[in-house]
């Protein structure tokens, strides 16, 4: 019998239980996957607390992982036992030693990417891809602002955006994290605990503002993020680590310069198989080229996922975090 982190009710970290778990055999269009690494993400916390409701309880948390195919359903033709694969997105169930998952959600890993590296980059890396190429097409000469620039997504966005030729401004919580962001390609790290980041952005851009803001913080940064934009700039809010953004009078977008606002999700941007493969391909290419380096800041045993989530909530992590089954 294999094991998994299972919740029977929503709540704090204490609801996460390390229990026996039988994933069963794969259905006709599924794969049974022996997981070698599992990604840790803020959305896991949202599922655990009930902020983002899961389809049903009890449930196995987690949306990202990588491992080796054990068995395939009788309608699966493009994957075989022994293949190294990775995934990010629905359905949940990643916090497990072994799981079954629809084959169409898996991508085969190149030889030069390890399963641990994949588990630390699939969700964040494909998120960075749709941020930089989907929500706003970043190009050479653009100015961007990325919050949590030393975090998992932020670290990748900084490197990728600089590779594209953008001027990168990032907010961080400490001088130590500012150094990390700078090493990852952030031209202008701003320690938001010491200065007003909106005023700093105005100074850096000589009052012009940035073309796009990528905001995963939510409530604490939303209004000032709008103030950082140039006229007709774009705010991409893709997370809410500080809490959800309150209801908004959309007239404020007009008053602040005919701004654009979007709230995307990876699930939408990769819902079609061809889009999933495009996102994965582009991610693998920038990693393989050396333009983007994936930093695994910390690893935890999967059975200690509760502590891992607490560290993530309290901003004690750097880069990506990986759970080892």
From TrEMBL:
Example of a GO MF term: mRNA 3'-UTR AU-rich region binding
Cited PROSITE patterns: QOR_ZETA_CRYSTAL
Cellular component terms per the entry's GO annotation: cytosol
Domain Enoyl reductase (ER) span(s) in chain numbering: 11-323
CDD domains to which the protein is assigned, alphabetical: QOR2
UniProtKB keywords: NADP, Oxidoreductase
Keyword NADP: yes
Gene3D superfamilies: Medium-chain alcohol dehydrogenases, catalytic domain, NAD(P)-binding Rossmann-like Domain
Protein name: Quinone oxidoreductase
Annotated source species: Desulfosarcina widdelii
């Amino acid at each position: 019998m294999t094991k998994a982190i299972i919740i029977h009710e929503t709540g704090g970290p204490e609801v996460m239980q390390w229990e026996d778990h039988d994933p069963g055999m794969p259905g006709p269009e599924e794969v049974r996957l022996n997981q070698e690494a599992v990604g840790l993400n803020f959305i896991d916390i949202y599922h655990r607390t009930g902020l983002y409701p899961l389809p049903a309880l009890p449930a196995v948390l987690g949306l990202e992982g990588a491992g080796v195919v054990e068995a395939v359903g009788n309608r699966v033709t493009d994957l075989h036992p022994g293949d190294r694969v990775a995934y990010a997105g629905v359905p949940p169930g990643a916090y497990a030693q072994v799981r079954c998952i629809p084959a169409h959600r898996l991508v085969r890993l190149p030889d030069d990417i390890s399963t641990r590296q994949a588990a630390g980059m699939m969700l964040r890396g494909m998120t960075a891809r749709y941020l930089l190429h989907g929500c706003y097409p970043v190009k050479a000469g653009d100015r961007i602002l990325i919050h949590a620039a030393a975090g998992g997504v932020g670290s990748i966005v900084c490197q990728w955006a600089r590779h594209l030729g953008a001027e990168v401004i990032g907010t961080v919580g400490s001088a130590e994290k500012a150094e990390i962001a700078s090493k990852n390609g952030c031209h202008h790290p701003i320690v938001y605990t010491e200065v007003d980041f909106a005023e700093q952005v105005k100074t850096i851009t000589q009052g012009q503002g940035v073309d796009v803001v990528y905001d995963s913080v939510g409530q604490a940064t939303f209004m000032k993020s709008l103030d950082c934009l140039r006229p007709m700039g774009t705010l991409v809010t893709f997370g809410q680590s500080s809490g959800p953004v309150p209801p908004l009078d959309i007239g404020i977008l007009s008053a602040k310069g005919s701004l654009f606002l979007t709230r995307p999700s990876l699930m939408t941007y990769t819902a079609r198989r061809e889009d999933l493969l495009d996102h994965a391909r582009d991610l693998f290419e920038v990693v393989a080229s050396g333009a983007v380096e994936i930093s695994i800041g910390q690893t935890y045993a999967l059975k200690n996922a509760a502590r891992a989530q607490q560290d993530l909530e309290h901003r004690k992590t750097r880069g990506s975090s990986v759970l080892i089954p």
